[in-house]
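Hi Y.,

Following your request, here is the sequence exactly as I used it, all 254 residues.
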Amino acid sequence: MNALRSALVFIWIVVSVIPWGLALVFCSLFLRDEKLWWWFAVPWLKSVIGAARVVGGIAYRVHGRANLPGAGDMRRVVLCAKHQSTWETFFFPSIAPHQLAYVFKKELLRIPIFGWCIGRVGMIHIDRSKHSEAWVRVAEQGRALMDRGKWIIMFPEGTRTERGRKGRYKSGATRLAIATGAYVIPIAVTSGRCWPRRSFSFIPGVVDVSIGAPVASEGREPGELMDEIERWIEAEMRRLDPQAYRQVASAQAT
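Below is the corresponding structure, written out as tokens. Let me know if you'd prefer a different format.
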């Protein structure tokens, strides 16, 4: 039954992105990316989260929503989130009061329709093989996008981590925050509980999303600030999903 429900959600993703994406690409010839974001991208992303909830059985709870500055708050913000599955990449834009700009590898631009869309809604694509050049691009484009009221979202572990485990936190997000005077908002998310990484099968349940208080970057060092963000996220992950961490620890001990 779970396989069928999962297949129906993925069919919806594939089938719906074609007309929605082509409409976005066409309208990008006439509209700025802000309108494309709110008129096309966010509604489609919400539809995917809705399909995952209604059909796939993936519900969610949001803790600390009040920690997100409102639509009229023009503070610069870098969202710094745990990354366990694809679910959160769809979810975060659906609740953010500001337009989000992801930092992503340029290879995603080659994906038909989906790649064309993310290339037209004001995000930051980088070449991971050129580290120094990639950072310059993130800093320059990040500042320009923040000047237009956008928030930057980054996954400090760089890739999806297995449920109950921790990747190596890199300081790119805090470097950007310090360079632009932005606040860093840490986010813990237990999406691996319901949509395991590298899997096309859902596990019905509840994803917990916990949003921490904004942390000022002024006067901080990138590594020291990232250590604080890491401690908060990992402590919150263990509070939200203690069973997963106990299972991993038990497996490592045997």
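Strands lie at 58-63, 77-81, 100-105, 124-126, 151-154, 183-189, 205-211, 215-216.

Thanks again,
Q.
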